[in-house]
Write a structure and sequence with these properties.
Order of helices and strands: HEEEEEEEE
Mean pLDDT: 84
Distance between the termini: 37 Å
Number of strands: 8
Shape: elongated
Number of helices: 1
Largest sheet: 8 strands, antiparallel, barrel
Radius of gyration: 17 Å
Length: 178
């Protein structure tokens, strides 16, 4: 119950950050040389490293604002569902580096990227004796590739390593807010 409430708060933070980013980008005269802000939703898999791999399903959302033609920053919220009542919430601030910068008029059809982030990791699990929750710092690094399907819509795949130690593979769909 607490994790569901935390996920709603984190999603609200992402939406508010994205809404604040759009007017800020529109006011900048340099914004025309940078790509438009992006909203993205992801599904995937995470495996936590323990004595054996602990499998989790992943759902996430993020918003990004380009600060240059190569770099973008923004919040990301990831919710992971493991076995039984094992639930994890990861809220990070990310920086992305597009290896191939977009041209002035349009993004490249395929763009490899690097991503790194840091923030908060919240784990919650229910046992016979009650619910246990803990918070700690989080970090992720990874790489991926984004392919533009239309001038405003893309699909992407990425692989990440993170702390609490885990590996994550995800596929996402995004839209440029232009």
């Amino acid at each position: 119950m607490v994790a569901r409430h935390d996920a709603r708060i984190a999603l609200l933070i992402v939406i508010l950050a994205a809404a604040a980013a759009v007017p800020a980008a529109a006011q900048s005269t340099a914004a025309s040389t940078r790509p438009a802000p992006v909203l993205e939703g992801a599904l995937g898999y995470a495996g936590f490293l323990d004595e054996s791999l602990i499998h989790h399903s992943v759902i996430g959302a993020s918003a990004r604002l380009y600060v240059s033609r190569h770099f973008s920053i923004g919040p990301e919220v990831t919710y992971m569902v493991g076995p039984g009542q094992d639930r994890d919430l990861l809220v990070t601030g990310n920086i992305m580096f597009d290896v191939l910068a977009p041209t002035p008029s349009t993004p490249r059809r395929v763009t490899p990227f690097l991503v790194a982030g840091g923030g908060l990791f919240r784990r919650s699990n229910t046992f016979q004796s009650g619910t246990f929750s803990s918070n700690e710092g989080a970090a992720t690094v990874g790489l991926g590739v984004r392919g533009w399907v239309t001038p405003r819509t893309f699909v992407a795949v990425d692989a990440r390593l993170g702390w609490e130690p885990h590996i994550r593979l995800s596929a996402s769909v995004g839209v440029a807010l232009e």
